[in-house]
Design goal:
Layout (H helix, E strand, L loop, with lengths): L10 E8 L7 E9 L2 E10 L5 H18 L4 E6 L2 H8 L8 H11 L4 E6 L6 H11 L2
Parallel strand pairs: 1-4, 4-5
Antiparallel strand pairs: 1-2, 2-3
Helix pairs in contact: 1-3
Length: 137
């Protein structure tokens, strides 16, 4: 018997955050890809966050909200933050991250097809560049 892996979703959204310390603004960036072609991007600066992990989570939340507004409901999210991806995929409890993880889980139910995967930093350079630019906004 031959089995085939499911086709990847059309839309992939790479997210990243740029964080210096808990007193400075963080930057968020996301890039929506249709295959390999950029289709939509976002960049913003946000108030200081407690940690780089919090900033990464806020970046995923913001990207999810923006893609839902744009009517994209079948998306594979990609992040270079392995720790965050593990927390989301394994649905682990981490009290310091509970508000962000709860929001990601709630938003994920609004997607027809939601997944998140860890990608190498070298594959996330465009979202990284957007996030670094967001710090100064």
């Amino acid at each position: 018997m031959i089995t085939h892996a499911p086709a990847p979703p059309r839309w992939r959204c790479q997210t990243d955050a740029s964080w210096i310390n808990e007193n400075d603004r963080a930057g968020l960036g996301f890039l929506l890809l249709d295959g390999e072609a950029p289709a939509l991007f976002g960049v913003q600066g946000i108030r200081a966050t407690a940690s780089p992990l919090h900033a990464e989570a806020e970046g995923v939340v913001w990207a999810m909200q923006e893609l839902l507004k744009a009517g994209k409901r079948e998306v594979r999210f990609e992040s270079d933050c392995e720790q965050l991806v593990k927390l989301i995929v394994k649905e682990e409890d981490w009290p310091a991250m509970a508000p962000e993880l709860d929001e990601i889980r709630a938003l994920s139910t609004e997607f027809i097809d939601f997944s998140i995967a860890c990608i190498p930093r070298s594959s996330n350079v465009r979202a990284d560049s957007l996030a670094k630019g967001g710090r100064s906004r």
